[in-house]
Amino acid sequence: MKPFILPLSNPQADLQTVGGKGMSLAKMIQAGFPVPDGFHITTEAYRQFVAANELRPKILAALRMVDTTLPTTLEAASATIGSFFAGATIPDEITNAIKEAYLTLDSSYPIPATHHPTPVAVRSSATAEDLPEASFAGQQETYLNIHGEDDLLEAVKKCWASLWTARAIAYRIKNNIEQNTVALAVVVQEMVDAEAAGILFTANPINGRRDEMVINAAWGLGEAIVGGLVSPDTIVADKATGKVKTYDVAEKTVITVRTEKGTREDPLDEARRSSKVLNEADIIELVDIAHRIESYYGSPQDIEWCRTASPSPAGRGARGEGKFYIVQSRPITALPPEPTQWIPPSPKGMYMRGSLCEHLPNPVSPLFGTLGIRMVNIPTKEIGEMALGIGGGGYQYRLINGYVYLGMELTWREWVSMAKNSGALTRTMFKTSHETWLDARKELIAAVALQDEKDVKTLSPSALLEGARKLMIAIGKFYTVIQASTLPAATAGEVMFTRLYKMVSRKDEPQAETLLFGLETTPLRAEKSLFDLGMWTREHPSLRDFTLHTSTEELVAALETESTPEAIPAADWCEFKRRFETYLDEFGHTTYEFDFMNPTPAETPAVILDALKLYSEGKGSDPYARQREADRQREETFISIRNRFKLVPNRWFDKSANYATRLGPDREDSIADLGMGHTTVRRMLGELGKRFIVQCAIKNANDIYWLFEDEVSGLASMLEQNEVLPDHSVRVTERKAEWRARMKLIPPVMFPEKSIMAKMLPWNRANTTSNVLMGVASSAGKVTGTARVLFSPEDFGKMKHGDVLVTVTTTPAWTPLFAMASAIVTDLGGPLSHSSIVAREYGIPAVVSTGMATRRIVDGQIITVDGGAGTVELK
């Protein structure tokens, strides 16, 4: 018969017997690491408990009610199973075994008289936890400072029940772990009366550096850190020597302390609030222990530690005052790749993630990085020659580690020439920006129409490729025009208006940016059009019910068929389709991101339909009401200011207000135009990709984006010559993996990285490991919610009403997501970026320019966004 109890250091303590946490602790004790002593209550005890109380059929019945898309069903199932455990009885043979093991514990720690018998920590240890391939801390429960047989048995039963928390059930479903195969062991350890505790990563989890360790430290027991109740000190130390590289002392407000039964959080005294938890000697000792643990396991580790303050009596491993103990070690599974050397093309050049790069927030596809960038650089060079008076060849977009940078590889003569010409260019920009944009728009529309006239199925492979090249040149030329007209003009107009407004306004009057709400822009027109369709849908009950009770995927499929869904009048369905198609024709050809690898909204209507469902249900913000309120507030404020001043100040104020309100919409409209040609480019490249599939060169049409331009050109030529095409599928797989690895990187905002200009950029944030991210406050308000980290349309299906949208940056195509979001957080941007403007329009908090939110925040994590303070707190 399998035992119910094993000593903590027992060699039989394997995964199936004592779970992931217990197995790790057993190994560390056997290896001589300072781990508090104790014993395992094995998985056999759990199974016997479940069998004796006939719980298994009840558990499986409760699980059949679970729908992972509905969190309430997870909570309901968990509560039901929890009640089964609470009403069950632990068999006598298990009870007696636990009591006997507990009474034989000989504590090595000083225990106050009120805490006899030996206080222990009771920790859950599941068979599907803390594994290299599935590490997820905190699924089950831990109970600290338990003393007495009855309290211990109650804590054990609660641990067993915690195998069925909502988060644990969901985790196993997500990782395809069979629910009926898991079991739970319990670790009972002597309770360490810790003066300080924390977490240590043996590799830097932010930048991926394997030669650095990151330590979080707080006073008292470690629960305040684990529970997110306190901001800990953050220390970055050299792994080899333990030498401190950085020590960020946090304002620590609470401390977890032991009580008569359990623990509580008390306010921390003033002396320790801002003092260092660990001194240099402590850090060196802790790093040494952690380094040896990492070497023992052979992989980076996430380690929980604690430290006593008073001397320990002689015994196993006793080293005197300030002894460190390790209470857990698990593999780090979400570690970014080791830092890649970011080597700019020229050591004398300046490269920054600005201009068009703001619309290319992620690493680009191989085809865009070759064909796309090469074509865009043709008009970019021309504007360098014509507008800046320089050679142009040094003013180009460059690829560094898969990310696009605007490079200025200029001689000092070219810098002087550019400075001389910039004044004249600025004057022209302010006078003619609107007309310049409209002329460029007409030219781009004509270029797109010229390619749209062609039937892609009849074009030769070379013609398809050449058509895509020509259109990318036209799109690139359009961007160079708005880059020197509407974009800077609108920004300058808003800045001038804001400064003047602050001089003439009163404290009780609205903020300057709120007076620029409700301006008629493409995003607002698109929102009003979708709102109108939602209101029209509400007026047709059968259509409304079908829309609301059909999954978005099924709704997309229904719109693509010729048949009418049951119970909906054919005329209503036909009109619904017509209106939706009209919306896509007018507003569906913007870009989520400038890389043509990404589909346009017209190709991915799911996110638009999700926003439509909100309006059809009577939820979401009414854009007409917002616009009316904005117009009213603006007019009343302007009248009030005009009545307070005489003619000259009024003339200045009116001029700046008119300029800002006239040019502001041009920026949003011209950015929306940037995607006009993308659908056509994708259609041409998609047709070429389909032909490559037939010849087995790639497996999917979209795999063409993972080839370089010369490879695509070579395959196109071989097709025309009826040659057998080589298989590129292995290359595609490798490049996708490389792209995913680059997605984890935080690209430097500028080269040289330590230049004065780089330090001045607002989104140049330090790679902090604090649980509070700093950014630019761009829309006031405070919200706590579930983070949805979205990079591309492929991720949009995860977004639910009330989620916090976390992304690198946004464009007008992202606007439907704002209708669902409770707050916005971005890596890039400023107070006048699209993200900030739309967030303020919707009245939701926004923090932009965090520099690393998408790399620090985990999808599904609870975060608090303070749009007034410019902070994002990670829970």
Written account of the structure:
This protein is α+β, with helices and mostly antiparallel strands and 875 residues long. Among the domains are: 5-190, Dna Ligase, domain 1; 194-331, D-amino Acid Aminotransferase, Chain A, domain 1; 511-663, no CATH class; 765-874, Phosphohistidine domain (Glucose Oxidase, domain 1, 3-Layer(bba) Sandwich). The protein is 45% helix and 15% strand. The protein has 28 helices and 25 strands. It has an eight-stranded mixed beta sheet with strand order 18-25-24-20-21-22-23-19, covered by helices on one side. It has a six-stranded antiparallel beta sheet with strand order 9-8-7-6-12-13. Strands 1-2-5-3-4 form a five-stranded antiparallel beta sheet. The longest helix has 41 residues, at 412-452. It is globular, with a radius of gyration of 31 Å.
- Give the full name of the CATH homologous superfamily of the domain at 5-190: ATP-grasp fold, A domain
Q: How many β-strands, per DSSP?
A: 25
**Which architecture of the domain at 5-190 would the CATH scheme give at its second level?**
2-Layer Sandwich
| Sheet of most strands | 8 strands, mixed
The tally of helices reads 28
Report the mean per-residue pLDDT as an integer: 86
Q: Which consecutive residue ranges, at least 5 long each, have pLDDT under 50?
A: 109-115, 130-138, 311-320
> Which geometry do the CA atoms define?
globular
β-strand amount? 5-15%
The CATH first-level class of the domain at 5-190 comes to: Alpha Beta
Question: How far do the termini sit from each other?
Answer: 44 Å
Oligomer: single chain
What fraction, in percent, of the residue positions are helical? 40-55%
Looking at the structure, the CATH topology of the domain at 5-190 is: Dna Ligase, domain 1
Give the radius of gyration.
31 Å
